[in-house]
Automatic annotation (TrEMBL):
Signal peptide: none annotated. One of its GO terms (cellular component) is cytosol. This is XRE family transcriptional regulator. The lineage of its organism: Bacteria, Bacillati, Actinomycetota, Actinomycetes, Pseudonocardiales. GO terms for molecular function: DNA binding; DNA-binding transcription factor activity. The keyword DNA-binding applies. Pfam families: HTH_31. The keyword Cytoplasm does not apply.
Length: 411
């Protein structure tokens, strides 16, 4: 159930699912190739599992999803509003999407206009990059319905049809990225698949490459790292001609595809592949020559550096992340990217027991984008870990305690 058990740690969830399967600690530890003592410490919260490939193997042996262990998705509630994710689900799973023949009369309904829908979609992207994920979720149902009408409405001239499909792909990309951000893996995958299908119909390689980027997001949040790596590399080859011609849009999209593929490689503990892909992205960023934001990518030299730090973190090197991250300024990037970097840095600092600095980073990030911080399973686990090892004398009025309550990290 969404929102249930938010206060449980990863270790407590492992224990719960292990007991539900009727496995003893010794049996599960044996299946993992670990010691019973290791598993016991993980379940008690005395040892943290910081490698996602280990969590994936735990999930596989327990027959649950990665998101089950991470405690995602969290019930998403923006201040003064209800949880809008069910409305997004309804829009993605609308019966009218199943058949044009069955719903022929409704297929004759015109959308409000492709230009106007495109403008609203781009504003949604701007809000996403500004960290207002709650606002984006609230407008997605309307945007997804308009995308459906654009795709299934009265047949227009082929050029208009392709433009309509391109706008639909952008809307579904936004939906996939937003759902990935809050851990709704299944919805992210549905939206990404529809983004790819619409992009195919648009016959625009840039639209298709952008939709492929959405697919890598959905695959990463589902723990499908090899598939994400393959999609990213394949889509990058699609734009070889545009890249040779120096198109800023193509350079930005290819650069981001390399970065997403690098993160996928890092999560499956393939250091060599991750470094090679980061180097390829670095070359593309050098050609672009700036921290741009073509196609809402936020791509450029700085974003390459932030992804390098994220990859190092996934590869189990938090000390290098802390040392090098202190020299990186992310002010030139969209707020969403700045906050994601701050969360990575806070997680790294927590792993090397620099809790006070980690809390300060999270509080500043929360000030920039409250939704992104308070509804992050990564933040929740980091905050819970720091809270449990903080001195009792810190009291319930401490900034850490207050943050833990806002993130639902404690009961």
């Amino acid at each position: 159930m969404r929102g249930a058990g938010d206060e449980l740690s990863i270790g407590e969830r492992i224990a719960f699912y292990r007991q539900r399967r009727g496995l003893s600690q010794s049996v599960l530890a044996g299946l993992l190739g670990r010691t019973e003592d290791w598993l016991s410490k993980v379940e008690r919260g005395e040892r943290q599992v910081n490698r996602i490939d280990v969590l994936l193997e735990l999930a596989r042996q327990l027959r649950v999803t990665l998101n089950d262990l991470l405690g995602e998705p969290l019930l998403f509630e923006e201040e003064n509003s209800d949880d809008d994710v069910p409305a997004v689900r309804d829009a993605l799973l609308s019966p009218q999407r199943l058949s044009r023949g069955l719903f022929a009369e409704e297929s004759a309904v015109e959308p409000v206009g492709v230009g106007r829908v495109a403008s609203v979609a781009e504003e949604g992207w701007n809000q996403y990059q500004n960290g207002r994920i709650g606002h984006v979720i609230s407008v997605l149902p309307m945007l997804l319905e308009q995308a459906r009408l654009l795709e299934t409405g009265v047949q227009a001239r082929s050029a208009d049809r392709r433009k309509s499909l391109a706008v639909s792909a952008r809307i579904h990309h936004l939906a996939a990225t937003s759902m990935s951000k809050i851990g709704e893996a299944d919805l992210a995958w549905i939206a990404a698949e529809r983004a790819m299908r619409a992009a195919d119909g648009s016959e625009d390689p840039l639209v298709l490459a952008s939709a492929a980027r959405a697919t890598t997001h959905a695959l990463l949040v589902s723990g499908k790292f090899e598939e994400a790596l393959r999609i990213g590399e394949t889509a990058a080859r699609l734009l070889e001609t545009e890249v040779r011609n120096g198109s800023p849009a193509a350079l930005s999209l290819v650069g981001m595809l390399f970065l997403r593929a690098a993160l996928a490689a890092a999560r499956r503990q393939d250091r060599k592949a991750a470094e090679e892909l980061l180097t390829q992205a670095e070359v593309v960023a050098f050609r672009l020559g700036e921290d741009g934001n073509h196609w809402q990518t936020g791509f450029g030299p700085t974003n390459v550096e932030l992804h390098r730090l994220a990859a190092w973190l996934e590869l189990g090197d938090p000390r290098s992340v802390v040392e090098r991250g202190a020299q990186v300024r992310s002010d030139s990037l969209p707020v969403e990217r700045q906050v994601t970097h701050a969360i990575d840095m806070a997680r790294s600092m927590s792993m090397v027991a620099r809790d006070e600095e980690a809390v300060g980073l999270l509080l500043r990030a929360e000030g920039q984008a409250p939704d992104l911080v308070r509804h992050s399973s990564v933040v929740r686990e980091v905050v819970r870990t720091m809270y449990r090892r903080s001195p009792v004398s810190s009291g319930k009025s401490s900034p850490l305690m207050a943050l833990a309550e806002r993130c639902r990290a404690v009961r």
